[in-house]
Amino acid sequence: MSNFIDFLMSHSKSYGFIFPSSEIYGGINAIYDYGQNGIELKNNIKEYWWKSMTQIHENIVGIDSSVLMNSNVWNASGHIDAFNEFLIDNRDSKKRYRPDILIRDYLEQNFDSNSPEKKKFLLRLDRYIEHKNLLKIKNLIDELKIHDPICKTKNWTNIRYFNMMFQIHNKEKLFLRPETAQGIFCNFHNVQKSSRMKIPFGIAQIGKSFRNEIIARKFLFRLREFEQMEMQFFIFPDEEKIWYEYWIKSRLKWHFLLNLGKKKYKIFNHENLAHYASLGADIQFDFPFGFQEIEGIHSRRDFDLKRHEYFSKKKFRIFDSKKSYIPYVIETSLGLDRLVFALLSSSLKKEQIKKNEKNSRIILKLPPYLSPIKAAILPLTNKNGLPNIAKKLFNELKIDHKLVYDDKNSIGKLYRRQDAIGTPLCFTVDYETIAKNTVTVRFRDTMNQNRIHIKEISNIIEKETGLKNILKKILM
Ligand code: GAP
What we know:
Layout: H1 2-14, E1 18-20, E2 32-34, H2 36-54, E3 60-63, H3 72-76, H4 79-82, E4 84-89, E5 96-97, H5 99-110, H6 116-130, H7 134-143, E6 160-163, E7 167-168, E8 174-175, H8 181-186, H9 188-195, E9 201-210, E10 225-235, H10 240-256, E11 265-269, E12 279-287, E13 290-301, H11 303-312, E14 318-320, E15 323-325, E16 328-335, H12 336-347, E17 348-352, E18 360-364, E19 375-379, H13 386-397, E20 403-405, H14 411-421, E21 425-429, H15 431-436, E22 438-443, E23 449-453, H16 457-465, H17 468-475
Parallel strand pairs: 3-9, 19-20, 19-21
Antiparallel strand pairs: 1-2, 4-5, 4-6, 7-8, 9-10, 10-16, 11-12, 12-13, 13-16, 14-15, 17-18, 21-22, 22-23
Helix pairs in contact: 5-6, 5-7, 6-7
The protein binds glycyl-adenosine-5'-phosphate (GAP).
Glycyl-adenosine-5'-phosphate binds near residues 181, 222, 331, 333 and 338.
């Protein structure tokens, strides 16, 4: 597993997807930058999510609220009191750990996956977490004789709570938002009044969130700065169950359309809920280290709006058919970076072309409509005017599609490079282009090549990589 993640990280860096942040100064733990291909992939995912929310559903609109908010927001939302993780320090290594992760990792490494003993320990751990019994969790660490992975001693402190919000040191107390949702709740009336929408309706947002994760690791999985794609759907209180189930089904369908394989997803129903939730389920994805949450769907009931009504002294009630009520909220919350990780990790393959090991290729089998580059326009050779013809074709087509032109290597190497960044189509200009206005089209996954007229190129790109085809399927 760690070999694969190392390979993925190195590939992501070499091909301009993900770079460690401020690398020239030694980097910063669990913060990454997106490179020239990473940002295109990320923007394509955002477009897919944004359109499936705000274009397909006429009763969902989007907003973009600020990262910094009045700090009363975080009192009202409960994050100042309840957005805590617990931690343990090792006095010798001076390293800080999440005790639950320490225990889970130990059990993972020291017991068979189906071992009944391991299951018993996990059940005990879940129970202690549920009851917030820090002493018993510490006893479990002692009982299992877990030592610090770095300095190997068992010189542990007691377990204590730690608030995960980043505080900015300023004259006034400010926090970096740990979820985008509060910007939506605070703008509930602004959006409702200015859009004249009636319940049920939704507000969607894509934006950065920040959490001071104690154990920030596993590449893009647990970051301290990350992006969320959240949608709050405001409903009549007595329709909670119907909409909760609707959104679980609808979000699962959205994931399935990524075509990574239905077996890669599981629904995990939460018993141990976040402080704001009354119902909660995770869509889990099969990451290289096993099934883990990629998206959360919660019923937040009227928790947030009620608290904002109380703290702000502003009314959050809806008056509908002579009734007055605070709407309930079903929330869908997807981590964009986790999705990038899911896509990269399940698309990166080493494929053997012929039986000979030398003839292998590295390929990124991304869903074509999410690929950073939709097609490459390549000259067969660097001679006899072929680059000029290819460049002219590229300039004509680049208005409609995200393309790349490349003539820096032999054609075989150019194909390999496009395979490695996940470009679904390559169009090659050769001598028949001069004579007959045709090019070859090469398909990334099959490596099949066909000859086509240059007039067909644009339609083929649209047919093979257009988002429209997928959006249509959402409605089916
Ligand atoms: N508004 C609800 C909320 O924030 P959450 O389950 O804490 O719920 C939602 O987070 C999603 O955000 C997760 O499913 C995950 O994909 C992403 N996420 C949360 N913490 C993250 C982190 N430290 N790094 C990367 N993604 C994270």
